[in-house]
Write a structure and sequence with these properties.
Blueprint: H1 2-18, H2 23-33, H3 38-47, H4 50-61, H5 66-80, H6 87-97, H7 103-113, H8 123-133, H9 141-151, H10 155-163, H11 169-181, H12 185-196, H13 202-215, H14 218-228, E1 235-236, E2 245-246, H15 249-256, H16 278-291
Antiparallel strand pairs: 1-2
Helix pairs in contact: 1-2, 4-5, 4-6, 5-6, 5-7, 6-7, 6-8, 8-9, 9-11, 10-11, 11-12, 13-14, 13-15, 14-15
């Protein structure tokens, strides 16, 4: 029995070497040994159009093994990141995967969807999201609410959920944020009032400021700028070698960089501030906001 399994593994790897773009061979081997080969995956992604890849992956989206289904959606997502990919096709494929019985796959796909742009969601994908908003007891419901707010769909359904006494408070908070993202004045005011009651510290920057960033409303980002301009040392550096407190503005910059148009701040490939002098960067950014009070906010990204 052990010899048989060993031979199957050896054969699967041999096939992978012989047919680097053969999706079925790779996933059948992965099904046997559970070992990822990122070199082969890169060749598969580069050697197939998104349409071709999805066609070859279709049987594996329904595989009995969770890791195989998960890997299939991962490959779909990675191929969709290419400039030539049909983003709408990718979004609908990933949303279809959100019907999977495994919560891990649903959660994974929702995170993947947050890396697309709002224009990548068509009417069909909007309807799929709306269908998920109806039942607040489904797994990852808050994730669907967050995506709905991002792409501006399901307003009426979410409003009804906000009035539903059976919906838990933490879910209603996500709904309020989503409605604020979609421009509901009452919910913008409510969310801001709740956020402004929180003390500014490490936890605020880590867990509360992202709510303001998600909202993408001028009032919300203005409050981020207020925190940016605060000279009190209320936070700690992410550098473990620095034990003293720092002003929170340095960490706020990383959140503002991807969403404020023409902001003179850039991030490196790891998502950290791209600068040799944080103090100069902070001062230049503060000055930029002073000189550009009508700055524009990117709203087509999550």
């Amino acid at each position: 029995m052990r010899l048989k399994i060993f031979l199957l593994v050896v054969i699967s790897f041999s096939f992978q070497k012989a047919f680097t773009n053969d999706v079925s061979t790779y996933l059948l081997g992965y099904r046997l040994n559970g070992v990822s080969n990122y070199g082969l995956e890169k060749e598969i992604i580069q050697g197939n159009s998104l349409e071709q890849l999805i066609e070859k992956l279709t049987p594996f989206f329904e595989d009995s093994l969770v890791p195989v289904r998960q890997k299939s959606y991962y490959l779909t997502y990675k191929r969709a990141l290419s400039a030539d990919a049909d983003k709408k096709l990718a979004v609908n494929t990933l949303l279809n995967g959100c019907n999977d019985r495994d919560g891990g796959i649903v959660g994974q796909n929702l995170e993947f969807l947050k890396n697309f742009h709002a224009e990548d969601f068509d009417e069909k994908s909007m309807q799929r999201i709306n269908s998920k908003l109806i039942n607040h007891r489904i797994q990852h419901y808050k994730g669907f609410v967050e995506v709905a707010g991002f792409v501006s769909t399901g307003k009426d359904i979410l409003y009804q959920k906000l009035l539903d006494s059976s919906v838990p408070g933490n879910v209603k908070w996500s709904i309020s944020l989503a409605m604020a993202r979609m421009g509901n004045v009452e919910q913008i005011r409510y969310c801001l009032d709740m956020i402004k009651k929180q003390p500014v510290n490490d936890a605020f920057v880590d867990y509360v400021l992202p709510y303001l960033i998600y909202m993408r409303q001028k009032e919300a980002i203005d409050y981020c700028v207020k925190v940016l301009n605060n000279n009190e040392k209320l936070c700690h550096s992410l550098n473990p070698d620095i034990s003293e407190s720092i002003i929170c503005g340095y960490r706020v910059l990383e959140l503002l960089a991807p969403i404020v148009v023409d902001l003179p701040v850039s991030l490196d490939s790891s998502g950290f501030l791209n600068t040799n002098d944080f103090e100069i960067l902070l001062n230049n950014t503060r000055k930029w906001f002073d000189e550009n009070p009508t700055y524009q906010i990117r709203k087509n990204n999550y």
